[in-house]
């Protein structure tokens, strides 16, 4: 069963959070509320999120300051942030949002369809990256298990596992390629860069699997980090 991605919604106004939930409910993912920057940072301590929708104008810690804290943490620095604001102060204000680490900056009122489409792209990228990490962990576990037995595993065992992993990876590669083609036509530069990063990780894992094929002579080559 595929685990749902978590989307963090940060806004000090309950009615805005309710509106975001109504817009994003069609994505069928887990929506997590935070009514302040401080509450958002607490949620990020324990959970992994595919994307953060962050209101700019909040009392106390505003969106810019919250984003700065998120980007300083190693655990959360790579989570995409979409800024939402009801006030448009011109190019300087928008530039400040991108400088704080946002992948997008959307002024209210926004088109619900556009927002949902943007969020869905980052959810899909997150899910692909999770699949990649799972494949790498499975292969690493099998390699460690074989080494623990002193390399006495029968040839059929690793061959069968490698075939299964190769098939699973091929499915992820196919989906990632289709997503990249879709992004090339419509998405922003940040989403395209994220997809390219994912494809590089997939390429590294494919090379590691190929190196483990019988006859390559490198059965203990280290796996690339999928993070």
TrEMBL record:
Response regulatory domain segment(s): 6-123
SUPFAM superfamilies assigned: CheY-like (SSF52172)
Protein name listed in UniProt: Response regulator
Gene3D superfamilies reported in the protein's UniProt record: 3.40.50.2300
Positions of modified residues (4-aspartylphosphate): 55
Residue ranges of coiled coil: 162-189
Any one biological process term the GO annotation gives: phosphorelay signal transduction system
Transmembrane segment boundaries: none
Keywords: Coiled coil, Phosphoprotein
InterPro entries: Bact_response_regulator, CheY-like_superfamily, Sig_transdc_resp-reg_receiver
